Amino acid sequence: MNLDIRKYAIGAFVILTGIILLGRLFFIQIIDDTYKASGDNNSQRKVTQYPARGQILDRNNLQIVTNQAAYDLMIVPKDVQPFDTVELARILDIPKEAIETNLRRLMPKQRKSLSAYKPALFLKQLSAETYAVLQEHLYKYKGFFVQARTLRNYVRPIAPHLLGYVAEVDSTEMKDTYYKIGDYIGKNGIEQYYEKELRGKKGVNIYQVDVRGQVKGSFFNGELDTMSVIGSDLTLSIDAELQAYTEQLMGKMRGAAVAIEPSTGEILMMTSVPNYDPSLLVGRVRSDYLKLSQDPGKPLFDRSVMSFYPPGSTFKVAQALAGLQQGTLTPYTTCSCAGGYTVGRFHMGCHAHASPLNLPQAIGNSCNTYFATAFRRMLDDKERSTRENYRLWRENILSLGFGEKLGIDLPQELSGKIPFAEDYDRKFFPTPESWRSLTLVSLAIGQGEIENTVVQMANFAALVANGGYFYTPHLIKKINGRDTVPPLYAEKRFTKVDTSHFKAVREGMYHAVSGSGGTARWVAIPDIEMCGKTGTAQNPHGTNHSVFIAYAPRNRPQIAVAVYVENAGSGTSWAAPIASLLIEKYLKGGTERLWMENRLLDFNLYDNHATAN
Amino acid sequence: MQRPTNLINGIDWITVGLYLVLVLTGWLNIYASVFDEQNANILSISQRYGKQLLWIITAISLAVMVCLIDARFYSSFAYPVYIIGLLMLIAVLIVGKEVNNSKSWFEIGSLQIQPSEFVKITTGLALAKYMGNYSGKLMQFRNVIIISATVCLPVILILLQHDLGSALVYLAFLIVLYREGLHSAILLFGMLAVVLFILSLLMQDVQGYLAGGLILLGFVVYLFKSRQIKLGLKGIGFFCMVFGVFFLVNLLTGARFDIHELLVGAFIPVFVFFAAFAAFRRLPHIRIIGLFIICALVFTFSVDFVFDKALDPHHQKRILVMLGKESDPKGIEYNVIQSKIAIGSGGFSGKGFLQGTQTKLHFVPEQSTDFIFCTVGEEWGFAGVFVIVTLFIVLLLRLIFLAERQRSVFSRVYGYSVVSILFMHFGVNIAMTVELMPVIGIPLPFFSYGGSSLWTFTILLFILLRLDASRYEYIR
User: Fold this and answer.
1) Which of A40, A117, A225 is the closest to B345 by Cβ?
2) ipTM score of the complex?
3) pTM for the complete prediction?
């Protein structure tokens, strides 16, 4: 067989393929009109369908955030014809010059260039009323069309920090190709953390448009359209009424308060003051943002999860647990105190109270001498070196939820600070061994280098309430009405401290509110057994910070709280009554101790400042 | 005697010219397809067209390098580079990066390399090397085994990466084998299998008829071949008679069976009778025809099975959409509809350079890579695509001519490998944009954006030009 002939067969096959392809192309490009008409310069317009963002509800299904309709006026530059700018300015209620500037900005130099085909935003967020009027006149403005959007609507002006806000995407966020210029995205808080759930899915409608820019109907019978999918509704663990009450009580203060349900880790309330009305950050005019960001009170700063605060005496509870775990402390250890802790030239003062005290009494009376002694005993434990004792102590403290992020569903959460042994090495140069237990003794009473966030303090109160474990605090309760909470939040987290050690500290915290010499006796709630611990964090720059952690009821606790008031004075005078009223509000629905309420409402931070200076 | 090779005179400048024209038009079209006024500078390397220019420059330097190497290098190192290619395919399965569901990319920094592209070259070389050296005929058992293994090993590895498109390209080697003596019946059977595959998918509900038709076809062919026309006529008469009887009986007894059942019912006794008759009379070719019928039946009814089990769901969908069995305009069909609109809207003379609206508004996904032909169709119209298609055809015919003028079998086989691979890419890619074929994501040679593919086609082509320059030497 002569194979040479086959080259002709192959050649013919190549040519035949070419002819078939050209034939098909000829058919599509010249004979068949369907494609020509569809691909005509003027014929397609893509209109994005923006879904409504998911609503945000509180734990009792009260609406916190919903949506309001808004309308963006768009233009397709190449279709725009000369029109009566004065009339349009009147309808839109903007100056005529603004219309001309916008047009100049959006109209490309060459009429046939690419951007002339792309719909561009002419004026955003028209109100429903303006839209209604405009709708009737729209036919006069060739090339203009309206795109429906939704904006946030804040039913209750509460909890701005934990909610976050919604604004236009910036260039870094646009790396996610889902977003296009002008799209909205959640920034901060729940809006950012649950962006994927809240945003839904954009859809696209492709319309057939004639030469005059009039919509003729959907393109390809709508076969190419995609439906938008509405965002998921979120049910938060927040109790909107409790939240509003707290914000009212702390209205003129600076600080934060957090309440957690110990049995689930659900955050019931999370307040940072000063705060702002979240609806200020919605809408066309965003000058409010600038004003807020320049306010010296830093209302945009979320003090509940971002502020690093010295915990003061509330930390004694954690110190007690660490000592018990290490075995250098027992509930029956006693220590006498004569107005302070003195070693050589070192002196740490203490207030007047009965002496000697055992552990529960020492917590109740907040005795500095007791905890200084206990802390040094822990670090000087002969079993290990001071460094090793410190490391062990640090691990125990970390397991109590301090010094690291808890994993709350908020993007802004920060870690607080429990220093490493190496930090002290650096601080007390030249030799690593140059720091001793006495050097660190202020840690014993929650001062020095320790810094906690308020949510960590609240979580700590919850884990003491539970007797040795906690659930990662979280804000999400349901997504779209279903309990689809991440399994992470349903996991019990045990600490490194044996659960048997919690009995004594719980007794101590009860003693603080109900025992003789207890530091917070005056805030005891009628009919409810509350446990708490005061703290007065020393502030070298001004008046001390007022701190209180608490849980109630003593048996079967339902709520754990931490309250932190900056520059207010002692823990018992300000933070404690706030916590007491919150607990009473949550458990009983309200209070009869109006005098206490009024005292708090009359608080004025700036008076306190004056006395401090 | 060997004449010394003069590269300047030896290189086929016609092919080089065609190559340059295609590459540069490709680049202009990539520019048009990702064009954006904010970034109109054609040299900006932050954009694809800028990057493609870098790819083109490097590709041309590669081409020069390929030409400077001695021609015998390509034959001596054919096997080692083939092995290296296979090792790369295995490596990519382990450390590769998954893109679009197929794990076929190496990622080195920001550079992405697809080894299955380069393996086309090494497979061509290895095939040429073996066929240049073997003694005897292609159809010898030993040769068939080794040649199939050479082609199938990379195919299997590529299929393991879930890259059906790249694997299909290797079917092109059938053309090479055909040129070197593959029995044309095998090619015919191959095509028949494809036709049957499509037919039985199209006629899924009435596969029985398809099978019946095939058997009938077998009979007719057989009767003609064995000159038994009379027997055939008798058969048809017999069938009509049986069917008539069945029909009447059915009518009288109250129409219990429908017409399909009657047809099949009448067919079976006639078939059995004739089979027995043929066997008894020892008619010629009976075994071949029997085999054909059995194969056809098995094939028809196994298509479903193969289709369900051997293909990924998205491949199944693409095929069904192409055949019009299924409609999915938002998903797979979207590309094709938009691609057809873009091309169709070009009309005769196109909308002009950078004026394609479909192109500009990015209606067609993957437009700078697999669907680059849409830009040509939209902006240059039928006139443009006519020129481009013609250029490709001329290039392919020129390459056939080059392959044929080689003295050594090695060079000729390699030449045909180049022709086949380019042809396959060209044909499938364009056919896909105009919906003559299901969407198979393979690039248009020299046109599509991408370094791996441009480099591959350049090296592939220039090795042939290098071999051609030395055609008076004997390379094996």
Assistant:
1) A40
2) 0.81
3) 0.62
